[in-house]
Amino acid sequence: MSIQNSRERVLTALSHKEPDRVPVDLGATGDASIHIDAYNKLKKYLGIEGGKAEFIDIIQQTVIPEEKVLEIIKVDTRTISLNTSNGLELKIQKDENGHWFIDEWGIEWKKPKYGYYFDMVGHPLKNASIKDLDDYSWPDPDNPGRYEGLEKKS
User: Fold this and answer.
1) pTM over the 0.85 mark
2) Of 39, 48, 81, 140, whose CA is between 20 and 30 Å from 73?
3) In which domain, by residue range, is 19 found?
């Protein structure tokens, strides 16, 4: 069997055939990623200084690993994810109790000072009536901003 590139390896595995080696994934999705604290320890172990990882899932505190990390540990997958539908950039606030933000759905999330994850603490539809649902400003899944820049990532 010849040596495959990452794309060939993943496609071979997905077609239920045997690739040259088992494909490795780290960070292709939020559920297959790594917590920011563990990621920073991994970078230190690998001797990588500087750089900055983006969050793929701010709530779980999972990151999109940097290319240098992916290359060193021979990861076959890469992250491609949608943007928020309204172009909202999360503005994470900090106070003496930890961090908090409000997402594109209007949900309030808090992470305690010594916590690892954000917890939902407030929801705009908690006591909603039918009229409130009709009047609610739902995120727009068809907003072109949600797909902006995806072509460059593929």
Assistant:
1) no
2) 81
3) 1-81
